[in-house]
Amino acid sequence: MKHALYAGVAVAACAMSSHAFAGQLTAWVIDGDSEKPYFTQLEESFNATYGAEGITLDVVPIPSYNEAIQAATLSGGLPDVIMLDGPNMASVAWAGTIQPIGDLLDPEIIADLLPAIKAQGTYGPEEEFYFISPYDSGTILWGNKALLEQAGVRIPTTVEDAWTREEFADALAKLKALPGIEWPLDVKMNYGAGEWMTYGFSPFAQSNGGDIIDRETWVAEGTINSDANVATLTTLQDWNKAGYIVPASAGDNKFYGEKTAALSWVGNWMWPAHREGLGDDLVLIPPPAFGEAGPISANGGWGWAVPTSSTNLEDIKVFLNYAMSSEQVAAYADTTGYVPSRASAIPLSKTYGAGGDGEIFAKLAGCCAVVRPVHPAYPVITNAWATAVVNVLSGDVDVKAELDRAAQTIDQDIADNNGYPPFGQ
Amino acid sequence: MRIPRDAILPSLFALVLALGVLLPLLMMVTISLNPNEQDIMVSMGSIRSFIPQVFSLQNYIEVWTDPVHPFGRYLANTALITFSTLILSILFNSMAAFVLAQGTLAIRKPVMILILATLAVPGESLVLPQLMMAGWLGQIDSYQVQIVPGVANAMSIFLFYQFFSRLPKELIEAARIDGFSFFQIYRHVAMPLSKPVISAIAVLQFLEIWNAYLWPVMVTRGPEYRPLSVAMSAYFGTNQAAWGNIMAFAVSMAVPVILFFLILQRQFIASVMSSGVKG
Amino acid sequence: MRIRTKGQGQELAMLLPALIFITALIVVPFLLSVWFSFTDQRLVPRPIPTKFIGATNYERMLVDPLFWQAIWNTVLFALIVTPVQLAMSLGAALILNSAIPFRGFFRSVAILPLLLPMTVIVSIWAVLFRIPSGPFNAVYQWFAGQGAYVDFLGNPSTAMLSVVALSAWATFPYQMLIYLAGLQDIPQDLYEASKLDGAKAWQRFRYVTWPGLRNVNIFLIIITTVGALKLFTQVDILTKGGPNGATTTIIHYLFKQGYATQKVGYASAVAVFFFLAVTAIALLQRRFLKNEGEA
């Protein structure tokens, strides 16, 4: 019955779908404005290099990427190569959706990766390599030099002389007192309770000696709700109550548009907007040291993975090594504004090489980046932490109780999955 | 032009109503005409986002010609999904409703109870099992997976049922005496009379499909089968939205429908208005 | 007799397609939900077996304060938005039913929100709600003085009202059109008669219009309430359920559990509960409104 009904539709659908041939690779990539030119370049230069050998590459940007991957996973329709967001790799690997790629990659490339990027791609107790990212990202404090000078605040330039928590608080108090400043610090509360809250706020916790889960025992209780984390989030909550932090509904542009905020804690993707809005007043300030561990920057991002269903491994090997060559990694960085993930590519990049505007990002990626936990429960971990952060920063709630609830949610999920074997065994 | 005295107050209210609707839309158009994304973000929320400073079609051209987001393809997908759903839904549901209202089958009563019960099942609560079923059946990323759920529509059966059960008995009886079979009575007597209820249901379902977001985004992988509503949300990137393009897309998406409804305004209003509320 | 059987065969053939669709797409998924709700089913297959876990999902659900908060928020939203939106719709319908100039134009303008995708409407409203000087706050400052502002979305006590305002704006034209139809169904001579009796505009509304809209009101109260209980898109984009869970609705909770963290078993328990609750409310309303009408 259904067949007859949809015969017409089905015929139309078949005519339009494409079939993969040997030697032809399809890679799904994220559909971002800043990445688009890079992927066009990647496809063209790869085909120019390997077309003669009979390997062609089709790079397909996919809008609403995460949902598309989910749908393709359920229907078994994944292409030869996909992109994943780094922290989600473990949950996808655990489910058996992607396969190890350590043997496909040139050992030289893996050895050359920034330490946190290598950690981001290494999964499980067997330390297998599943995922490789061409770039790294980072968070810093972006500052409005004119306002900071007006407030008489010291502007650190290197990781060594970063603000301490007290200095940071002092700077915020001075800035708050300036006329025309409503809330001095924008921490992108408008991004909502999503990945940003883990990416952007777990560095504060780690800088103060805390973390979001114990990375040896994989237990959240005692770590995510540790005294250190309670202290860190309480500080942020106090700042929010004191009116230092731009609220979610104030929108995105208080720092770079209206200039009623003097500092912004956000990743390097905001560089173009900041440059446009502030011009010469823009300064890049290293992350503040919340505690003993010193400044910590967020890190990680999207990268390449190979679905278990892919069999064309010889060609995929060629592609991965090409996409991860120093030149391609540097090109990715220069096109998108992200930091190259290979140490040898950093000098090749205009922005991040010595003397470049973004030198500090490259430094941070090398010295001060902590990878988000590589564990199959990550989607639950990040959700629980993000909810706690947003709640703490949206009112007068009990910090400890929020973190206790996060700990319980995470540990319950891990128990529900028998500890996600082979983890926890 | 002269306004009757007792129409002055309502006219003022009508103006307020129109302003209330149009002001937010003015912002949408203003942003869509501004080609400078950074400038949009800088001026967002200020008076500048309500009064166009520049008139550039650049965002529109970008949206229409973007190879990654084939606007024409999305439009065709939306049209195909919409029309298939409407045609199948109206056909099947009216047939079933006619049997329930005028037929003789013994199972009419239990079926009617089933329909009434499913009327209360919120579609949203079924999305997860439906998604898994679609996965098991290998139907993900297709047109049918977006059409079929809209065809199973208890509300539409119920509205047809209400209409058909009020048809005069004599009419049905007369047709039967003339030798019409049950199907022929449905086809040649009942359906021609139900134009208002058909268009009411069509409009209701149209709006439902037009706003469908959750289901299509979950069951499609890329531009091949995606409808406009999902395509547009792809411009809300990971951390930064491309506002100029989003608004240009939204305007492009809304204009054909607005025109369509303006042309058919009289019928449109008349049909929504008759969605089974009489009697 | 033969004809009768043939007729019944025909009837069956006409009934079956819709029946199959309803069964396959509503009844079966619903039964699956019931089954999943007693297991630890996940969305994407995982390397450990899915098992039957009894009523664990329900037990956890019933002790989760967030779940109860979501229920309360959903009920609150429905209780506020239904009268607000229906009042708006009726008001607009009365205006557009009166003898104003350019009536066709105003009617066309009034239905525009219905034709825009919700994602866009929400984005526009997010800008309108901006603090401290977004368009709404600019108006507020007119009354409350320079520097004063309301954090519409950031304050738990106003966040839900903001969602109500947005939702009413986005969907009121639908109810408005049904009211318009209802108004036109009221016989003109009733108005003429009451005019002759010297009834004022308000009295005409009270004694002619309002009773004349009885059935329309019953229909609209039910569909608006049921629609309100499904609130999701607006909240998901605008507030993500915050601040502090103040706008988490039951469907939003269900999706966070079932899709974002993939716990289909648990989400199914929520879905089953939701179904029972909506059915109960719809039945109660129906009984209550019908009885009142007959009394």
Automatic annotation (TrEMBL), chain A:
- List the record's Gene Ontology CC terms alphabetically: periplasmic space
Report the InterPro entries cross-referenced here.
Bact_solute-bd_prot1 (IPR050490), SBP (IPR006059)
Q: Domain of life here?
A: Bacteria
- Pfam families referenced in this protein's UniProt entry, alphabetically: SBP_bac_1 (PF01547)
Localization (cell): Periplasm
Signal peptide span: 1-22
Q: Which residues form a coiled coil?
A: none
* Predominant location category: periplasm
Q: Which UniProt keywords apply?
A: Cell membrane, Lipoprotein, Membrane, Palmitate, Periplasm, Signal
User: Its family?
Assistant: Belongs to the bacterial solute-binding protein 1 family.
Output this protein's name.
ABC transporter substrate-binding protein
- Source organism (scientific name): Devosia soli
TrEMBL record, chain B:
Q: Which UniProt keywords apply?
A: Cell inner membrane, Cell membrane, Membrane, Transmembrane, Transmembrane helix, Transport
* Record-annotated ABC transmembrane type-1 domain positions: 75-264
For this protein, the record's Pfam families field holds:
BPD_transp_1
Q: Name one GO cellular component term.
A: plasma membrane
Per the record, the GO terms for biological process are: transmembrane transport
User: What does this protein's UniProt record list under function?
Assistant: Part of the ABC transporter complex UgpBAEC involved in sn-glycerol-3-phosphate (G3P) import. Probably responsible for the translocation of the substrate across the membrane.
The protein's name: sn-glycerol-3-phosphate transport system permease protein UgpE
> What organism, scientifically named, is this protein from?
Devosia soli
From TrEMBL, chain C:
Membrane-spanning parts: 12-36, 70-96, 108-128, 159-181, 212-232, 264-284
SUPFAM superfamilies assigned to the protein according to its UniProt record, in alphabetical order: MetI-like
Its source organism is Devosia soli
Per UniProt, the keywords (alphabetical) are: Cell membrane, Membrane, Transmembrane, Transmembrane helix, Transport
- Gene Ontology cellular component list: plasma membrane
Q: Which GO terms describe its biological process?
A: transmembrane transport
UniProt membrane topology term:
Multi-pass membrane protein
Q: Does the keyword Transmembrane apply?
A: yes
Specify whether Acyltransferase is a keyword of the entry. Answer: no
Name the predominant localization: membrane
Recorded family membership: Belongs to the binding-protein-dependent transport system permease family.
Could you identify this protein by its name?
ABC transporter permease
Location comes to: Cell membrane
- PROSITE patterns to which the protein is assigned, alphabetical: ABC_TM1
For this protein, the record's Pfam families field holds:
BPD_transp_1
